[in-house]
Amino acid sequence: MYWLINISLLVGTFFLMEGVAWATHKYIMHGFLWTWHRSHHTVHNHALERNDLFALVFSIPSVALIVIGFEIPSVDYLKFVGFGILAYGLFYFIFHDVIVHRRIKIKFKAKSNYLRRIINAHYVHHEKHSKEGGQAFGFLFAPKKYDVKKGN
């Protein structure tokens, strides 16, 4: 039962992070920290962008919860919350930086409707180069309105 609870914490945190990421993307990245995020909405020829600072900032709660969970036995369940945040961060990196933006060059063609939809939603998001008027702020979920017709 102990492992079932902890795995549930990890998986639940992973899915909850999509809501946190959506809100952070819409209200912080496209809000008062647009000065960091703007670099992600502009074409450039360098490997890093100011927007990458968000990954550093977002890793802090994950690392902190994992360390606290290992160091303080009475709250050891916190490490599973931290690992859930870490898992979301890894999925985000693979989807967003590798698959969508090709920051690491790999051969990959999205064949599933799910992947095609979230990739399309992200491309729609990038049609705007300003902090206002954006849409599709999620990373691992996109509504059906972003479906791609077969053959595209």
Task: Characterize this entry briefly.
The protein is an all-alpha fold. It has helices spanning 2-32, 34-37, 53-71, 78-100, 113-125.
In words, what does this structure look like?
This protein is mainly α. It has one domain (2-108). The protein is built from five helices and no strands. The protein has helices spanning 2-32, 34-37, 53-71, 78-100, 113-125. Helix 1 (2-32) packs across helix 4 (78-100) and helix 3 runs antiparallel to helix 4 (78-100). The longest helix has 31 residues, at 2-32. The protein is globular, with a radius of gyration of 17 Å. The N and C termini lie far apart (47 Å). The relative contact order is 0.14. The model has no long low-confidence stretch (mean pLDDT 91).
Count of alpha and pi helical runs: 5
The proportion of residues in beta strands is under 5%
* Rounded average pLDDT: 91
- The string of secondary-structure elements, in order, is HHHHH
Low-confidence regions: none
Class per helix and strand makeup: mainly alpha
Strands, total number = 0
The main β sheet shows up as: none
The number of domains is: 1
Give the tags:
single chain, 152 residues, mainly alpha, 5 helices, 59% helix, 0% strand, globular
